[in-house]
Specification:
Elements lengths: L4 E3 L2 E9 L3 E8 L5 E8 L6 H12 L10 E7 L2 E7 L18 H20 L2 E2 L8 E3 L5 E3 L6 E2 L1 E2 L2 E2 L14 H4 L6 H18 L12 H8 L13 H10 L10 H4 L11 H4 L7 H4 L25 H12 L30 H4 L8 E4 L3 H14 L3 E4 L5 E6 L5 E11 L2 E10 L2 H14 L13
Antiparallel strand pairs: 1-2, 2-3, 3-4, 4-6, 5-6, 7-10, 8-9, 11-12, 13-17, 14-15, 15-16, 16-17
C-alpha cells in the first residue's frame, strides 16, 4: 500500500494532530523527502471557522521568528481550507512534561527563554497570542521551541496606537485573572501571565490553579499568601518561586514584563541542560500513582466534546477481523511510511524492526509495542477501559476513541491506533481534545495495565 498523493510530487503522511476545526496532516515530497504540516479545515462542517481561520492566516503570514511556527502559505479547494506550516518533528511541549513531576530546571529554563523570546517578538509586532499553553508550543528537530496555533490571536497595537482587549478567551488554567473578570485588559500582561503558568507546569508537572478567580480555592490561597505548604509551590526552588511570584501578580499593572523576566536571576542561572536530565532517571511509571483520585489542581481544555456510546470489545474484535480479512487490523495511518519521526533515535540491537519504519514518526512517549496478538491486546485493553469507566467506541477506520472527563469535569478525548510494523504491533495513543497532562496520566495508567504484554525488546521513538 502506498500513501495517497496530494498534488504532484507530494503525498500525505499520517495525522499529526487534531484541532477545533479539523486535522493536521503530514505532507512529504517524494523527491526531496521534505516535510510540511498541513492544517485542513472543513468550512462546510464548521460554518463559524471561516473568518477565524482567515484572521489566523493574515496574522501568521506576517511573522518570521525562530520561535514562531512558520506559515508557508494557504489555499482553498471547495469547502476545505488548507494552511501549510513548518513541520516540528519533536512534537508538543506537553509531551516533555511528566505529570506531577515536570522536567529538570535546566530544560525548563531552556524552553522558557525561547518562549519569552517568541512572545516578546509577537508583542513587538502588536500581536497578542491569547492561548499560550504547552499544547500550543512545538519542538523542532533542533530542540527549538515554536509557538503555534494563532486561532485566538489578535492585533492590539497598530502604528503605535494600542487598544484594550475585551474578549474572554484562552484555556482556563492559563488565562490571566483580568481576562476572566470580563473587564477590558492590556494584551501584553495577559500573555505574560500565561507564560508564567507554563513555567510552573514545566517545573512541577501541574498548573497552579483551575482558574485565576476567587471561585478557585487554590487561587484564593495564592492571593492571600496561604500557599506555601501546598503543591505546586512546595516543588519550586527559591529563585524560581521568586520569579513566579512576580509573574503571577493579580494586578497586571504590577506584573513583571517580559524584558524584566529575561533579566531575572533564575533565567540567567547556569544549568547544565544535559546533565540535568539525569535527575529523573527512574522510570516515569514508578514515580506516578495509578489511581483515579488525582487530587489537586490540574490542566483543562476549553472545548466541550460529546460523549461516545460504549461498545463491547468482543464486537470490536469481530468487526476488525471482518474488516481486515487477515490476522491484523489496520488503523490510520494504514502504512508504515505514514508515521513520522525523529531519525536520530537509536535502535537496540535486539529489535528486528526496520529503521526506515521509524524515520518519519512524530516524537512522542505515548506509544509502545506489544508482544501478544492484537485480539489478546484488545481484550486486555477493553477490560481496562471498562474498569476505569471510560466511554469508548470504534470508528470505520478502526481507530478506538476514548472519551472521559478530567479532574475539572472537562471533556478529555484521545485515540488509539493499532499499527502493524514488520510483524510487530504498535499501540499509538494520541490526544484528540483536552489537557495534555491529563491525557498522559490516563496513558500511563493504561500502559501499566498492559505492562505484561509490552514488548520491551523493541525501542520506540519517544
Amino acid at each position: 500500500m502506498t500513501m495517497k498523493m496530494f498534488v504532484e510530487d507530494w503525498k500525505f503522511g499520517g495525522v499529526l494532530g487534531e484541532g477545533a476545526f479539523g486535522e493536521v496532516k503530514l505532507l512529504i515530497n517524494v523527491n526531496t523527502n521534505a516535510k510540511v504540516a498541513v492544517k485542513m479545515i472543513n468550512l462546510r462542517k464548521h460554518n463559524d471557522a471561516h473568518m477565524m481561520v482567515k484572521k489566523e492566516i493574515c496574522i501568521q503570514k506576517t511573522l518570521s521568528h525562530e520561535n514562531v511556527l512558520k506559515l508557508y502559505g494557504s489555499r482553498q479547494e471547495d469547502d476545505v481550507l488548507m494552511m501549510f506550516l513548518e513541520y516540528a518533528i519533536g512534537g508538543e511541549l506537553f509531551d516533555r512534561i511528566e505529570p506531577d513531576v515536570g522536567m529538570p530546571a535546566g530544560q525548563a529554563q531552556y524552553y522558557m527563554k525561547q518562549l519569552l523570546n517568541g512572545v516578546q517578538y509577537l508583542h513587538q509586532k502588536g500581536i497578542a497570542h491569547r492561548d499560550i499553553k504547552p499544547e500550543n508550543l512545538l519542538i523542532d528537530e533542533n530542540d527549538v521551541l515554536k509557538i503555534c496555533d494563532f486561532g485566538l490571536a489578535t492585533m492590539f497595537r497598530l502604528k503605535g496606537r494600542e487598544r484594550l482587549l475585551d474578549k474572554k478567551c484562552g484555556t482556563l488554567p492559563y488565562v490571566a485573572p483580568e481576562v476572566i473578570s470580563g473587564e477590558s485588559y492590556h494584551a501584553e500582561p495577559a500573555d505574560t501571565w500565561s507564560c508564567g503558568v507554563v513555567l510552573i507546569c514545566m517545573l512541577c508537572g501541574e498548573a497552579p490553579f483551575n482558574q485565576a478567580s476567587t471561585e478557585c480555592s487554590y487561587y484564593r490561597k495564592w492571593i492571600t499568601g496561604n500557599y506555601m505548604l501546598t503543591s505546586p509551590w512546595t516543588k519550586l526552588q527559591y529563585s524560581a518561586l521568586n520569579l513566579v511570584k512576580k509573574i503571577l501578580l493579580p494586578n497586571p499593572k504590577k506584573r513583571i514584563s517580559i524584558p524584566q523576566i529575561l533579566e531575572h536571576s533564575w533565567i540567567n542561572s547556569t544549568f547544565n541542560y544535559k546533565d540535568d536530565q539525569s535527575l529523573y532517571k527512574e522510570p516515569l511509571s514508578k514515580r506516578l500513582i495509578y489511581d483515579d483520585t488525582f487530587d489537586g489542581p490540574n490542566l483543562s481544555y476549553s472545548q466541550p466534546t460529546p460523549c461516545l456510546p460504549s461498545i463491547d470489545m468482543k464486537d470490536v474484535i469481530n468487526l476488525l477481523r471482518d474488516k481486515s480479512g487477515s490476522n491484523l487490523c489496520y488503523s490510520q495511518p494504514t502504512h508504515n511510511d505514514d508515521l513520522m519521526i525523529n531519525s536520530q533515535l537509536p535502535l537496540t540491537q535486539t529489535q528486528t524492526i526496520n529503521l526506515n519504519t521509524f524515520q518519519c514518526m512524530v516524537k512522542r512517549m505515548t506509544r509502545f509495542f506489544v508482544k501478544q496478538d492484537w485480539e489478546k491486546v484488545l481484550e486486555i485493553l477493553g477490560a481496562a477501559l471498562d474498569q476505569f469507566h471510560y466511554t469508548w467506541n470504534l470508528d470505520e477506520s478502526g481507530v478506538i476513541t476514548i472519551s472521559t472527563v478530567d479532574t475539572r469535569r472537562m471533556p478529555l478525548v484521545f485515540k488509539i491506533n493499532l499499527i502493524e510494523m514488520d510483524s510487530k504491533l504498535l499501540l499509538d495513543f494520541r490526544l484528540s481534545k483536552g489537557c495534555g497532562l491529563e491525557f498522559k496520566r490516563r496513558f500511563i495508567k493504561l500502559k501499566h495495565v498492559l505492562r505484561d504484554v509490552i514488548d520491551k525488546d523493541v525501542t520506540v521513538p519517544s
